[in-house]
## 1
Amino acid sequence: MLKRRIFQSRRWLCRSFSSIIHSEPVRVCVVGSGPAGCYTAEKMLKASQQAQVDIIDRLPTPFGLVRSGVAPDHPETKIVVNQFSRVAQHERCSFFGNVTLGSNVSLAELRKLYHVVVLAYGAESDRSLGIPGENLKGILSAREFVWWYNGHPDGRNLDPDLKSIDTAVILGQGNVALDVARILLRPTTELATTDIASHALSTLEESSIRVVYLVGRRGPAQAACTAKELREVLGIKNLDVSIQESDLHLTPTDEEELKSNRIHRRIFELLSKAATSRPIHAGLNQRQLRFVFFRKPDSFQESKDSTGHVSGVLFEKTVLKGVGPGKQIAVGTGEFEDLKCGMVLKSIGYKSVPVDGLPFDHKKGIVPNDKGRVLSDTSDTAVLEEGLYVCGWLKRGPTGIVATNLYCAEETVSSILEDLEKGGLISSTAAPKPGRDGLLNLLHDRNVRTVSFNDWEKIDSEEKRLGSLRNKPREKLATWNELLTATSEGTDHST
Ligand SMILES: Cc1cc2nc3c(=O)[nH]c(=O)nc-3n(C[C@H](O)[C@H](O)[C@H](O)COP(=O)(O)OP(=O)(O)OC[C@H]3O[C@@H](n4cnc5c(N)ncnc54)[C@H](O)[C@@H]3O)c2cc1C
Ligand SMILES: NC(=O)c1ccc[n+]([C@@H]2O[C@H](COP(=O)([O-])OP(=O)(O)OC[C@H]3O[C@@H](n4cnc5c(N)ncnc54)[C@H](OP(=O)(O)O)[C@@H]3O)[C@@H](O)[C@H]2O)c1
């Protein structure tokens, strides 16, 4: 199904490159400079010689989660920014950072200014568990923790207490959960030469955390992570990994599931191997990673010292029920067990948030759409929101790797091209759309200081210079003030 959709989008992209001629440029605004936004801009520029693309982002820095999500010890994943930089530097493309849709400019305004608006602003909030005690101190979302160690300016003040606790519980077993476990457990000498934020490195150097629990509501045959990432965490130097062998018992449905899913089969094999190859003598100060399966969080426990701090998680044991492979869900058994801890990281998924005037499917946490075309609502009678498109996590939900957004962008761009060819987006009778000039006038009137791609390159150079002093690829500027100070005093709109 997915392959067929990709094939159809590609066919459309090839067919329509030069066939659409308009009397004025096709003015496109892409909101968000993460992978979805950058791939959309790239495909749009390539497909239509008349497209003029402006990318806006609320941060002074581009590239979304490639900068603020991808782990510091995954430098190879970040190489894609070279490709994204070439897109932003294209003669028909501009980047305007420090511009927030929803506060600096509204969706209605953007739609008036541009023929096409593509929303690719990701998922900047968190799913919640909705269980008692969720607001206790020491309970953080993985998103906040990741922002903190990756130098996102909104994560700078998180200041997690890793010094007075010895145990952390991570809820969820996806790749983000594995990332945060690895950052907590990996020797800091190995992190020191990455682009990890310096405030995070100092805190991790003083960490007294010795035990990390990775807790899943389902079993080892359903774990949401991928093999490379699991191998990496299992391979951390001098780490004692434990998995209860009884959790590795497979039901016939699990076996069916594993037969048809190579990734899950590989994960299960790795976990089985890890369960049987524990070191016989765990050292006194050795760090431990404990996988816990078949437990769903029921409530958080508060410490007795009235500080409002978390002291543990109460879990309900689960069994899997479901009609078939891949559809098994965790069901509570009525049996409970707690795990004492000083910190909880909820890694149960990100969540997108709507802006004013944007149709939103609150149940799925996405913008309702048909192949990237925004729909007015989620009903069967929904109509298309003309000129409005969506891409990336905001379109599909918070799953998929960087490359997934390339296929997603191809689909959205081929929808745009189809609509352009039908003549719906640029009318010969309507007044021309002001596009970039209109946006810059509006932002100027509101005293919004935009950050151009040239300005970002100044931040980039400064970070690389600071990094070279510490044998790091870069030292991220991690406050709004530092970031904006590093840009030029005057506003440069040349790229
Ligand atoms: C912690 C983590 C680690 C990951 N590691 C990897 C990895 O190693 N390899 C891999 O392939 N994939 C990885 N991924 C997945 C990958 O990062 C995502 O698939 C991808 O970033 C999603 O792209 P996006 O453009 O939809 O969203 P994002 O990358 O989140 O980009 C959204 C952009 O929109 C901007 N924005 C938000 N709100 C507004 C607003 N109101 N106005 C203007 N701009 C706004 C943001 O600043 C951001 O730049 C990781 C994901 C996470 C969460
Ligand atoms: N290195 C990489 O390539 C990399 C790194 C990081 C992220 N990513 C990608 O980014 C995407 C997002 O990753 P993610 O880890 O945030 O999401 P994810 O892969 O969807 O994992 C979410 C985890 O949370 C659990 N969960 C969800 N709701 C829960 C609840 N109410 N109670 C208990 N557990 C709950 C899920 O369990 P169930 O399975 O039972 O639902 C799952 O274990 C993924 O596609 C991932 O592959 C890639």
## 2
Amino acid sequence: MPGTTKPRCLACAPWPRTWKTALACPGSFCTIPPACKHVHGLFLTFEGPEGAGKSTQLSRLTARLAQLGAPCTVTREPGGTPLGTRVREVLLDPALSIDPLPEFLLYSASRAQLVANVIRPALARGEVVVCDRYADSTLAYQGAGRALPEALLRQITHAATGGLSPHLTLLLDLDPALGLARAARRGQPDRLEQADLAFHARVRAGFLALAEAEPARFLVLDATHPEEALAEEIWAAVTPLLDRA
Ligand SMILES: Nc1ncnc2c1ncn2[C@@H]1O[C@H](COP(=O)(O)OP(=O)(O)OP(=O)(O)O)[C@@H](O)[C@H]1O
Ligand SMILES: [Mg+2]
């Protein structure tokens, strides 16, 4: 009918949006079909071996997003929720010996809580969600690293995430010996950092195989490059995606 304005989901407003419009979003995935078919928000993950520079680049990226005024949720795995934080303490405790299956299930428990309580709600509000490690770490560490069956990992991970996959995964790749040496500068190694070099080499290969299988989702970065150069590469990959957030 002439003169009628279609109801519009505010999370679909063009980028850059202000905090005000973002907060005015209905707060759930669009319920005004068929006007809007957007998957709201933008989900970015950082992956890679120990000491690759994930947290360093995550901080740089989120600082730039904040400068743009982009509503952003920053989180990490394991962790990001009160339950996840407790699970993280257990998983990283160097004094504990944890078998591969319970280790995987603990990561999955943390992930399920994080996706349901933090990541999905933030995406539904139209925010950029940046997560330090996510499901690819499970496939690399518990799959390639610990040799748990991939089908089992994928099935439980799907249950934990409801199939939620990142729009873009930034994989910082480097020789594990170099990454462990970097991480060692921080002090006492955690439970994962204590694992032998052969384990970390399998993890690295696992990450690279995942990237090869899904080249559209992954950006593989040479983590031996200087921090500043890596930050520019990451920014160049992220900015074209912002208008979908
Ligand atoms: N491009 C880089 N070149 C050299 N050193 C770097 C680079 N990026 C980060 N570092 C340094 O390497 C160390 C590990 O970086 P960071 O904590 O960001 O890695 P990480 O991947 O988050 O590690 P973890 O897997 O333990 O969480 C830090 O001391 C950091 O300053
Ligand atoms: Mg880190």
